[in-house]
Fold each of these.
Amino acid sequence: MKLLVFLLLLQLCGSADCRCFCQVTGNLDDCACDVETIDHFNNDQLFPKLQNLLESDYFRFYKVNLNKPCPFWTSSSHCGLRHCAVKPCSPNEVPEGIRSPSHNKYSADANKQLEECEKEQHLGAVDVSLSDETREALLDWSKYDDEAERFCVVDDEASPDSQYVDLLLNPERFTGYKGPEAWQIWNSIYEENCFKPYTVKRPLLPDSFRSSSGGEARKFYSWLDGQCVEKRAFYRLVSGLHASINIHLSARYLLDDNWFQREWGHNVTEFRQRFDSELTAGEGPKRLRNLYFLYLIELRALAKVLPFFQQPSFHLYTGRPEEDKKHKEQLLQILQLARSFPLHFDERSLFAGDEKEAAKLKEDIRLAFLNISKIMDCVDCFKCRLWGKLQTQGLGTVLKILFSERQIEALPMSSNQRPSFQLSRQEIVSLFNAFGRISTSVRELKNFRSMLAEER
Ligand SMILES: *[C@@H]1O[C@H](CO)[C@@H](O)[C@H](O)[C@H]1NC(C)=O
Ligand SMILES: *[C@@H]1O[C@H](CO)[C@@H](O)[C@H](O)[C@H]1NC(C)=O
């Protein structure tokens, strides 16, 4: 039966929709799920609910520092690129509850607790009856919160350079940011941060676009197959993110730019250049599969983090109790839905080997990811930098969740102690908006699929 389907596909694969999509079907490697199940689940159920939630004030205002210098090379600024500009919010556009000094915390309650903790620390410093050990532990707690287990650099929200950005006013779309600078970013991510030796060439580098013989691609994939599942997963997450961003740029392409109007919409030619197997030496469909892989990983994290958001003390705090309550209910519905997805990726197959080896691997991956999030400060185009930072931070939060299973499960019991797992507002906003981007990409694939089918 499988063979028959395969033969049928081979015969049908003359058209462009097929060249982009015919390999994007069936089971995904390294996990027990198939593309069709994800399409149906996302497009009909999850996507509309999530889209709705992301329009709420809590999720649309993201605080970000777009002015950090690039730590790796001198970058030229693309301020002049009109479509790259990010419009920050003026203070009175941001709801009071989010703006207040407690902006990082999600509720007045939690905030009070925190102040008390700080007071305790302060007391600890003068109360000689506290042992040195306890005092240090108290200090360490707050440091731990900030640093340990982070997969991503989090901007200092208190820095005067950090600004609120209204994500709905600054959509991710085609900006004209292309060419050598954009390539440098992705190149340093793949070449210097994906565990790949320089001797193994990535398939489809821009200069080898036409001349690539197929031999290099074979060498690359045999290298990748030889990697442990974790490093393979890491590469695929990065590639999936890259694919997702390219889908948005093709779906929100600047089609018309003149005196009267500026029109953004789908550009099928652009999409094909990035994903048609004939135009990409077979790479396009693989990238789309990696997008689905990324989707599964993020979905799994949402399913797992439910107990954190279920805590009665958690609020989507904007200072308007009625709305906050309604949005929290919506949020919990979405997480329940994520939980109900039948074919979850099982991350216990990751980091499951020898304990010491697994810890080392996890650390390698954490450091590589941390570095990638710093590279985002080198993206010249501000709008791309905004969405790049948001999406890497979201993915960093996903990894943090996946590797904190025990701590999250311990949450309901830890009500009187210091919570075993925390997420800052910035992490929460980036987590859901990043997943929103991936979910949008999967939905957009449906549009491109039918547009390509019409072209036949
Ligand atoms: C971080 O990324 C930069 C830029 O790609 C690279 O030069 C550097 O070696 C990386 N550092 C680590 C620790 O991976
Ligand atoms: C679509 O994208 C291609 C590049 O891939 C470009 O040459 C073309 O002008 C675009 N079409 C429109 C209508 O903007």
Amino acid sequence: MGNGLSVIAIPQWYREWTLKYGKRGFIAASKTWDRTQDAADLSGRVHIVTGSNAGIGFEAAKELARRKGIVHMLCRNAERGEAARAEIAKETGNQQVFLHVVDVASIKSVRDFAQSFMKTNQKVDMLVNNAGILVTDRENSVDGIESCLAVALGGTYLLTGLLLPALEAAAAGNSHTGRGIPAVVVNVTSAGMYLAKADVSDLQMTKRKDYDGFLQYCRVKRAQVLHICAYGSPEYWSAQMLLHTYIHTHGHTHGNT
Ligand SMILES: NC(=O)c1ccc[n+]([C@@H]2O[C@H](COP(=O)([O-])OP(=O)(O)OC[C@H]3O[C@@H](n4cnc5c(N)ncnc54)[C@H](OP(=O)(O)O)[C@@H]3O)[C@@H](O)[C@H]2O)c1
């Protein structure tokens, strides 16, 4: 408890991790999925994935593109972003993959993107808030906010809020067509959320003598989920699994607008 991590939660977390996460968890969970949906056609559907030049975000963007969806990749670095966009376009043959240079930790960058995107009058069927970081030493965003918090909570929820009309437009459009598919917001959190309680009295971890990047990550990821619950999705517990579920089963099934 001394370092802020729960000693009771650590063994529970280890058990959950071995059973439900990683390759083993993925293989186990995938056995229950309806694979007939693997080829779902996402033509005409609009997806935004933050932090999509690497890791989970890259794979999610690629899978969405493979299924013919329109994909907007939000990446903070133009060079890395364009390399990833080009790779996805080449590999999937989908030319409707677009790069937007956006630093999710920057309020101005997020606002600028949302403003220009909303001017295009596009709906958004799915927003994947994937961008996230875990740093060892304290870093602050351009706005002076602790960086882990700035990405996972600040920019993420600012972006979601600013895009809500486009998400609602997608949901309304889908109900008109009788497809009954809601717009979806996926927030990629972490099992680290089980290890520490969110500390709303010290969101930027300035009250502790030393900055602890891992503890801050766990707290922020937990706060991310608490925020989602506030959006009305209490069944939400692991965005990684939701993302896999989304990609490998129904196309659009979980989440909330
Ligand atoms: N991998 C895991 O085991 C694991 C477990 C639990 C949860 N997660 C969560 O899953 C998400 C993705 O993780 P990952 O493992 O795929 O990490 P990753 O390989 O490090 O990829 C993170 C992506 O986010 C981008 N990013 C970081 N800060 C950003 C910002 N301010 N604005 C825009 N993009 C930003 C990175 O861009 P750059 O290339 O420019 O840095 C990169 O594209 C994160 O939210 C993470 O917390 C991962």
